[in-house]
Amino acid sequence: MDQFIRLAIRGISLSQIQSGIYVLLLEEESGRIKLPIIIESLQAQSIASALGKRDASRSFTHDLFLSFAKVFHIKLKAVVIYKLVNGIFFSYILLEGDYVEEEGKKIEKKEYKIDSKTSDAVALAVRFQAPIYTTREIFDKAGIYFENGFPIDKENDVSETEMENSGLLFFKEKSQQDLENMTEKDLNALLNHAVINECYELAARIKKELDRRE
Question: How far apart are CA 84 and CA 91, in angstroms?
Fold first, then answer.
């Protein structure tokens, strides 16, 4: 996995834009780049439960899969977020099965790569204590870069002072047309506000609009 970037779960936030939707926030080792992923309520609850932040007495399908895997000696080696198309993240889980016997002899364990919804894959990774990876290309497309605790644009940095002096009002209910009508400087300022206020879904939409203009 040397060619991939390892991620950690930074947190889960309730969407400020759409009811019943959450934003899973992942970050790379240094914490300078964060990756927001929109997920549904059930998967958000499952991930939070596995992290010990919800009622542990409630069981999810991901818990059943963990029990099944233990009985049949299946190990989840890693989760890989490998593709991003039109704002949708594609992932796979890398499984390792038990030793296979051929003619009475054990051979090496076999690996299996299975496509999975990203939120389900992360829910399983937490339970198996497996690493989560992504590619540099995905980080370049959807990652939000930070410097001294504040989000920045990689090529057109908007400083904290410029953001404060821009006079831009922060509204959570920004439509796609609103974003398309804004200047790049105002979009970058709004991106700062969105991240600081933990509106990661809006931040992801702003980042997508900025990338569209490149």
Answer: 9
